[in-house]
Design brief:
The protein has 13 helices and twelve strands. The protein is of the alpha+beta class. It folds into two domains: 50-225, Heat Shock Protein 90; 240-314, Winged helix-like DNA-binding domain superfamily/Winged helix DNA-binding domain (Arc Repressor Mutant, subunit A, Orthogonal Bundle).
C-alpha cells in the first residue's frame, strides 16, 4: 500500500481511504471487506481465499516432462503473494534459471546474450497475471522452462473480441481494476504495444515469432523458442578455439564437458556451483574439478585449497 500510494501521489491518505476510493473495500452487513481484486492486489495471502491465484514456475531438464524414474523437474517454485510481489519475485527467480550464451560477434569480440529477451517473457507473464480468468478456481498460471523453449500457461480464453489473429492490434481487459492498478505501479502500460513488442524483441534476437494458442478453448498458451541448437553449436565452436580444450575434448566424459562448458560460459565457478550442475555432492564436484586441473584445462585461483574466495577458471 505504501508503494502504491507513493506511485499515485496520495501518501497523505490512509489505506482505507485509498481502497474505498478505488472500489477495493466495500461495506457488507456493516463490515468492510476487500473485494476479490482488492485481495489480489493488496492482500497478504490472497491464495488463502483464492487458491488458484498463484504463479508456478517449473524448470525441466530436457525438452519434455518425463514420468516415473525419469522424472526430470529440477526446479519448482510457487509464488502466491499479492500480484505486485508475485510479478517481482517470479521475475527475479526466472532470471536466475535462464541461461546466457557467449559467441564471437562479427567484430571478433566475445558477446554474451540471454536465452530470451527479458521483455518478451516478462511481458507474457504480466499479461497472464493481468488478464487471466480469476473465476477459474481450479487452474493457476504456470511457467515451464525447457531446454528449447519457455511456456506460459494462463487460465481463461482470450477476452472480448480479441483473437489469436488480431491480438497484436486489439486489447481487451478482463480485469480492468487489476489492469489499472498495475498500470499505476508502472508494470502495465495499457497501450496495446506489449504483444507487438514481444514479436519485435524475438525477431531482434533472431528467434522465431512467439506462438500463441488456445489449446483447450479455456486457456491461453504462449511459447517462446530459444534456438538452443544453433546457440549451443556456436558456443561450443567458440570454446573449441582454445587449442588445449580442442585437443582433449573428445577424451572427456559428458559431465566433464558440461562443467568445462559452464566454466567457459561463466568465466569462473565454485565447487558448490559444480555440485549443483552435476547434481552430486561437493566431494564429487571437487574430484571432477581436480581431474580437469590434472588435464591442465583449468586452474584454481585460491591462495590455498581452503581459500573461500578462490574459484576455478579456464587455463589459457
Amino acid at each position: 500500500m505504501e508503494i502504491y500510494k507513493s506511485k499515485i501521489g496520495a501518501t497523505e491518505l490512509s489505506n482505507e481511504q485509498i481502497l474505498k476510493a478505488r472500489g477495493f473495500l466495500v461495506e457488507n452487513n456493516g463490515k468492510l471487506n476487500l473485494t476479490n481484486s482488492g485481495m489480489l492486489l493488496f492482500g497478504k495471502n490472497p491464495s488463502v481465499y483464492l487458491p488458484s491465484a498463484r504463479v508456478r514456475v517449473v524448470k525441466f531438464e530436457g525438452v519434455d516432462l518425463q514420468p516415473g524414474v525419469d522424472f526430470n523437474v529440477v526446479k519448482d517454485r510457487t509464488f502466491d503473494k499479492c500480484l505486485y510481489k508475485v510479478l517481482e519475485e517470479a521475475r527475479n527467480f526466472i532470471n536466475t534459471q535462464l541461461r546466457e550464451f557467449t559467441h564471437l560477434n562479427p567484430n571478433g569480440v566475445f558477446e554474451t546474450i540471454p536465452e530470451y529477451p527479458e521483455f518478451a517473457w516478462y511481458e507474457g507473464l504480466v499479461n497472464a497475471v493481468t488478464h487471466r480468468d480469476y473465476t477459474n478456481t481450479g487452474e493457476y498460471i504456470t511457467v515451464k522452462l525447457f531446454d528449447d523453449r519457455l511456456e506460459i500457461y494462463s487460465p481463461g480464453k482470450l477476452g472480448g473480441f480479441v483473437t489469436i489473429e488480431n491480438m497484436q492490434y486489439k486489447r481487451y481487459s478482463r480485469n480492468p481494476q487489476i489492469s489499472r492498478v498495475l498500470t499505476e505501479f508502472g508494470i502495465v502500460r495499457e497501450l496495446n504495444e506489449g504483444v507487438k513488442r514481444i514479436y519485435r524483441e524475438m525477431r531482434d534476437f533472431y528467434l522465431k515469432d512467439p506462438i500463441y494458442s488456445e489449446p483447450d478453448q479455456h486457456s491461453v498458451l504462449l511459447v517462446l523458442d530459444n534456438n538452443i541448437i544453433m546457440r549451443g553449436k556456436r558456443k561450443k565452436e567458440t570454446m573449441l578455439k582454445n587449442t588445449k580444450i580442442k585437443e582433449k575434448w573428445e577424451s572427456l566424459n559428458f559431465q566433464q564437458q558440461k562443467v568445462l562448458q559452464a566454466i567457459y560460459d561463466k568465466g569462473e565457478i565454485t565447487s558448490e556451483e559444480v555440485a549443483e550442475i552435476i547434481d552430486r555432492k561437493k566431494n564429487a564436484a571437487v574430484r571432477l574439478l581436480n581431474k580437469l586441473i590434472d588435464e591442465k584445462l583449468i586452474v584454481w585461483t585460491g591462495t590455498s585449497k581452503n581459500d573461500k574466495y578462490g574459484k576455478y577458471i579456464i587455463k589459457f
